Amino acid sequence: MIGSEDFKAAFRLHPAGVALITADPGGAPVAFTASSVSAVSADPPLAMFSVSVLSSSAEVLRRTDTVVIHLLSAKNLDLAQLGAARGVDRFADTTRWHRLPTGEPVFDAADTWLRLRILHRVDAGGSAVFVGTAIESQVAQDADSDGLVYRNRTWHRLGAASAIRVPELADAAGRR
């Protein structure tokens, strides 16, 4: 078995999409940035994410039935940084977010978000893994902004200039 430092070093080099996750089971809302978000299944629509058990959001997530996963683009770097900051009130600027009719906080600048009902909570080492079914979503009509990824402790923009064209795959897709 490898040590935790070797494991973290390997995953630092693996780019991951960036999301802001919000929840409020009653009381004070929480928000945190995550790069552990993944689609699990399209039918039924399931997604998952994890959070460190040491996170200030972990206890709130154990009590909530629903969360909102904001899938961030490069234009949302400020939201990613807000969710990653320590010791700040992420909801202080009330002009940046609103509550859904069901109570969850949503940041308005995010073009794409999914509201999930939590189905499973799994303790996994120093983290908790959450799996939920998507019960509501928003994808803006013009949601074609450059992607935001995190790699090696740095934010990166994915856009047309970073695309790698693979002729065989592009040709095969055109013949279908």
TrEMBL record:
Keyword Oxidoreductase: yes
Gene Ontology MF terms in the entry: FMN binding; riboflavin reductase (NADPH) activity
Keyword field contains Oxidoreductase: yes
One Pfam family named in its UniProt record: Flavin_Reduct
Keywords: Oxidoreductase
InterPro entries: Flavin_Rdtase-like_dom, NADH-dep_flavin_reductase, Split_barrel_FMN-bd
Domain Flavin reductase like: 11-157
SUPFAM superfamilies: FMN-binding split barrel (SSF50475)
Listed name of the protein: Flavin reductase
Species whose genome carries this gene: Microbacterium album
